[in-house]
Amino acid sequence: MSNAASSVRVLVIDDSNTIRRSAEIFLKQGGHDVMLAEDGFDALAKVNDYQPQLIFCDILMPRLDGYQTCAIIKRNAKYSGVPVVMLSSKDGVFDKARGRMVGAQDYLTKPFTKDQLLQAVRQFGAVMQGAN
Q: Order of strands, edge to edge, in the sheet holding 9-13?
């Protein structure tokens, strides 16, 4: 499988610089294009410009949390099909259910490993490749 064919445009939304950086390193090692956003407002502007094929979104963020950010993205018909994977330091059943309610595809617990991140891209990023 060649990397060029399987490169996915990924947006990572997290208010932690450490998480953003490690996600960027892992994703770039996997051959993907990465855009970073530090909060929901930042993300909403970037979704429009960058048109990601997959979004990783932290739940606990200032101003606009991950649930609100995901809900706003999903409400836009143009982006409603873009898979969103929630990121959280809590591995709670309630959080997962709430993520599904706002349209998230999956849920990764932080700290995530490179394998978990790339597995999620393989699983969900491929959906959008056919669409773009």
A: 33-37, 9-13, 54-58, 84-88, 106-109
Which pTM value belongs to this model? 0.91
Using one digit for the tens of pLDDT, what is the confidence trace for 28-68?
999 999 999 999 999 999 999 999 999 999 999 988 999 99
* Beta-bridge partners for 56: 12, 85
What are the structure tokens assigned to 97, written together? 């259910």
**What gap in Å lies between CA 79 and CA 25, rounded to an integer?**
25
Question: Could you give the CA distance from residue 49 to residue 9 in angstroms, rounded to a whole number?
Answer: 12
The letter for the amino acid at 80 is S
Please choose, from the candidates 10, 26, 41, 35, the residue with its C-alpha nearest in 3D space to the C-alpha of residue 111.
26
